[in-house]
């Protein structure tokens, strides 16, 4: 997962959609879309996790999915497992601290967007 500081985030250009939290990602017309920005208005609002997973698994969206808003370090691993490619950290969060989260967790028992089979079903 690519991690961006808040000041590195570019506003949407052509081919980029900012999808509101209450929008249905299954109803979105994906033609011509290269990036979808999903917003976390506050860290307790996790609807963007579900939107990302639906876009990846049901809609087979292969473009960039970017997490914006109140993105905290402890959410990054779960974001990557749900299908996010890029996370824009909220103001004041250190990107090097954020990157260390991925070094803390090496494997997962459950399947996810990148590795759909659970650990016990994978070939040894």
What does this structure look like?
With 124 residues, the protein is an alpha/beta fold. The protein has one domain: Aldolase class I (TIM Barrel, Alpha-Beta Barrel). The protein contains 3 helices and 5 strands; from the N terminus they run E-E-E-H-E-H-E-H. The chain has helices at 47-57, 76-82, 95-104; strands spanning 2-4, 16-19, 35-40, 64-69, 86-88. It has a 5-stranded parallel beta sheet, covered by helices on one side. The model has no long low-confidence stretch (mean pLDDT 86).
What is the averaged pLDDT score? 86
* Strand neighbour order, sheet with most strands: 1-5-4-3-2
Q: How is the CATH topology named?
A: TIM Barrel
CATH hierarchy: architecture: Alpha-Beta Barrel
- Shape descriptor: globular
Helix content: 10-25%
Distance between the termini: 26 Å
The CATH homologous superfamily name equals Aldolase class I
User: How many helical elements?
Assistant: 3
What characterizes the major β-sheet?
A: 5 strands, parallel
Name the beta content range: 15-25%
Q: Which structural class do you get from the secondary structure elements?
A: alpha/beta
CATH class: Alpha Beta
Number of strands: 5
Low-confidence stretches: none
Please indicate the count of domains: 1
Radius of gyration: 15 Å
Secondary-structure element string: EEEHEHEH
Protein name: DUF934 domain-containing protein
Pfam family, one: DUF934
Organism: Diaphorobacter ruginosibacter
């Amino acid at each position: 997962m690519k991690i961006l500081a808040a000041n590195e985030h570019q506003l949407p250009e052509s081919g980029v959609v900012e999808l509101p939290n209450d929008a249905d990602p299954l109803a979105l017309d994906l033609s011509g879309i290269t990036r979808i920005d999903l917003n976390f208005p506050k860290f307790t609002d996790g609807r963007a996790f579900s939107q990302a997973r639906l876009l990846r698994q049901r809609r087979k969206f292969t473009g960039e999915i970017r997490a914006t808003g109140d993105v905290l370090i402890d959410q990054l691993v779960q974001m990557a497992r749900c299908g996010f490619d890029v996370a824009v950290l909220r103001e004041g969060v250190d990107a090097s601290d954020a990157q260390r989260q991925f070094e803390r967790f090496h494997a997962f028992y459950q399947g996810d967007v990148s590795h759909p089979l659970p650990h016990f079903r994978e070939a040894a």
